[in-house]
Amino acid sequence: MNKPKTGGRVKIWRRTILVLVALYLLLPIVAMINFSTKTFSGGRGLGSWRAIFQQPDLIAAIMTSLELAAIVIGLIFFLVVPTVVWVHLKLPRLRRPLELICLLPLAIPGIVLVVGIASIYRWISIHISESPLTLAAVYSMLILPYTYRSLSASLHSVDVHTLAEASRTLGASTYKMLFGVILPTIRAGVMSGAVISIALVLGEYTISSLLNFQTMQVEISLVGQTDGGIAVAISLASLLFVFLLLVAIPTSMHRENKELESETA
Question: Which domains, ranges and CATH numbers included, belong to the chain?
Answer without folding.
Answer: 56-259 (1.10.3720.10)
